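User: For a benchmark we're assembling, each entry needs the component sequences followed by a predicted structure for the full assembly. Here are entry 17's components. Please fill in the structure.
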Amino acid sequence: MSKGTVGGGGTTMLRRINVASVLDAVRRSAPAPLRVAELVERTGLARPTVAQAVDELLDAGWLQQHGPDSADRSLGRPAIRVSLRGRAAPVLGLDVGPHRVTVGVSDLAGRKLSLVRRSGPGWTAQELLGVIGEVITEALAEAEVPAEDVAAVVAASPGIVDEHTGRVQLVPSVPGWSAIDLIKHVRGLLDCPVMLDNDANLAALAIAAARGGTGTLLAVQWGERLGAGIVIDGRLHRGTGAAGEIGFIATGPDDVINPEDSRGPLERAVGSEAIAALGRQAALDHPESRLAELGGDQLDTADVFAAAAERDPVAQAVVQQVARAFARALAPSILVLDPTAVVIGGGVARAGAVLLDAISDQLRLLTLNHPKLELSALAEDAVVTGAMRMALDEVWQRKLPTPAMTSTT
Amino acid sequence: MSKGTVGGGGTTMLRRINVASVLDAVRRSAPAPLRVAELVERTGLARPTVAQAVDELLDAGWLQQHGPDSADRSLGRPAIRVSLRGRAAPVLGLDVGPHRVTVGVSDLAGRKLSLVRRSGPGWTAQELLGVIGEVITEALAEAEVPAEDVAAVVAASPGIVDEHTGRVQLVPSVPGWSAIDLIKHVRGLLDCPVMLDNDANLAALAIAAARGGTGTLLAVQWGERLGAGIVIDGRLHRGTGAAGEIGFIATGPDDVINPEDSRGPLERAVGSEAIAALGRQAALDHPESRLAELGGDQLDTADVFAAAAERDPVAQAVVQQVARAFARALAPSILVLDPTAVVIGGGVARAGAVLLDAISDQLRLLTLNHPKLELSALAEDAVVTGAMRMALDEVWQRKLPTPAMTSTT
DNA sequence: AGTATTTACGAACGCTCGCTATCTATACTG
DNA sequence: CAGTATAGATAGCGAGCGTTCGTAAATACT
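Assistant: Structure for entry 17:
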């Protein structure tokens, strides 16, 4: 019964294609309302066709009608304008960490309706599920979205996520944590598709969407842990499921991966804990340095970068060492992927230009096409934003009958 | 005048979609001929629609009609069967190296019609153009394809190729060689689109096509030079144009890329020349070894692997060293890409299991998901095959109006 | 050898849809 | 208050697909 090739059919298929084409055109210009004439121009369809499609979409609740714009003082009869009715299918993004739960609600147009964050001092797995439920209801209330309207949920989880089964390897930090339980729990609260993905992947998706356009993006999440997501022309690259695990890159000439350890060599070498440790050691060796002054005994990763920004040579040496190790580890992948840009997010990204310049200098020696090196502008919201983004993509893919639309906006 | 979104139109558009759908169904089952009833089943269209489309495609020369199969002893009136008329748009693949020119002609169904190879002791750029012309006409004659029928040409060139302009950086080996001249020259001989791409990319495309299906493939070409191509779900990944340049991966802790040098650190460390040099040195150090016996003074890369296969410890040590350096250089990229398979082709691939096992052992220590590690079955034909494949893809993309077809065969 | 059966091709009819052209409605301008 | 420009609504036409029926060609049975 499996039809091999979709793509043809009767005239009703054609109709659906055209309706989808109109809807897609509206989506592209969201949140700006569009006049029918503009839709005619953008879709290349005839006016009656577009009008009929718009009627249909209005009835189905996908579009909403606007009154004539008071600012639009043009000649002639004022045009009816339509725009995406975002609340037709709101989506939910989850970012679940051991100490923090973030939930975001977005409408179809990608407008953020609400964002609720709750921090705690480390929950148990059971408590965490409870907290997640609370935060979800809170976020939905704030967005004024009934639970039954939610069209898709994407949750972010650290570790390596099997895209379909939702199984997670290498789960850290929360004992007894199971993403399968999470999925079940959420599906119990909200009757809609629930998906799970790696947090670095989702952050990459968000950053790619913010940058827009095509090309290859390597988005590094750099905190205590180290991961990366790859987005190629808007699509996430997953490999067999574990793509982007840069934390496990070997650094020393004799490093190997220890399957028992949930952290990889590069994480141990340049993760935020390692940076702080290097800083503390340097402060001990050079008690006269600005670094030692700043940090004292409770020296933090941020202190290292602050001291380096003040041109303390001791701190600068630490940053140099970290940048060198990072660049050497990443350079092979940059040569292979040849990305348009490399974006660094996560806690360490707060270091700013000090670190970025040091890495950039190193990469210049080790790569052919030097990609743009940037800091993530999304800061700590990257993962939730990406989760919402992915949920949106899922909804659109499910709702739009036409598989591929040309992306020439 | 630029219409933003294609995808809708009148009924003629629908017709074109359906015709394309039928053509695509025939293509999928090539070279097996299909009955109309089978096409009806596979496309999901009604019989008259399919029949009309088939008529149209027969008139246009895309399909050819078969007599009833004598082996098909079924009841009832024998069905007319149609199959792809490969000669409707034959394509040409070129593999141009300093010492060897290979030209392949393929029909639309991917059947190899001819393959002509000519070797020489190093031509000048001018001579090379002449040789290329000769080999092309020879290959076309053998395939019985008139020059004016050729629908697309793809040429392989070493170095980094800008996909559109055809400009080449890092050209080695042939002084005065310009890929632009090549394109002009070929376009003079054959009036059709001529494209150029990196040889490693094309080899990767061929290997991916041979393996079939989806997933991520990292195809390494390992000879004197070292390059790789990445194919993700059938599509080549180019990055900004220089993806896959693994030859430039730094090996030593202080390696840097020298922009003046056309060869990169890894090439210098484990290219076939380097392997031979390591072998010669080992033979000098251990004149009693099997390696020294085999190779003598003119010791070759092949001798090293042969001696290692005979369990000569000296040669095995060399292989071990090479495998280690290669695996350490490639491991980061495998972690990032997480490919389904890594396939090694090129001259060094002739080493066989000795090298493969050594690399595999190393990679097991350095990666999370261990990809399948294989040798290319295509041997020296990989690049031409890939060139033909790419030319085919180009023709199909140009001819099929529908952008995306589901790939669930 | 003649008939029945099975399978496939071919043609006519009706339906839906989109495009062109025309007409009506609305608001601003002089 | 008339004129004009823009937008929305409506009728007619053409094209394509799907359904249905009739016909052709081969095999199997009597």
